[in-house]
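re the bet — no i am not wrong, look at it urself. input seq straight from the record:
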Amino acid sequence: MAPAPPRNRSATSSVASSKPSVKGPLHPDSFLNELTAMFERSTAKGSVWVTLKRSSLKSKVQRNKMKTAGEPIEFRCLIRATDGKKTISTSVGAKDQQRFQASYATILKAHMTSLKKRERKDRRKTTDADKKQEVSKKAPSGPKAF
């Protein structure tokens, strides 16, 4: 039996993956524009997930070297958003945080209209049912012997 030919790694990487497409970090303003577009695409059906994370954008080794050298480490806020098909991200420094947060809050408030109303049980009905169950548990089941 002849040995199998070596696999070409570039051929296997061309297979489409099920992971969402990822762009590199965007400028905060273009991130907000893309986020608005994501919310508009998902108004009828779909979800958008946004995560915020503290990050220095440096590896652990680089941070440790900076600590030992006494250099200050600038932490930033890494923000990612995905709708399952497309993923976008940006990084915001401490100087731009207030402006970005105000713009982000405006976008969230504008697109909260497509949320589903939470189904709540009527409080009176549930409390009445709970009281009835408690009374039935406390009531004796038969005659008491003294």
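see?? The chain is about 40% helix and 15% strand. told u. also Helices lie at 9-13, 28-41, 60-69, 97-110, 123-138. so pay up
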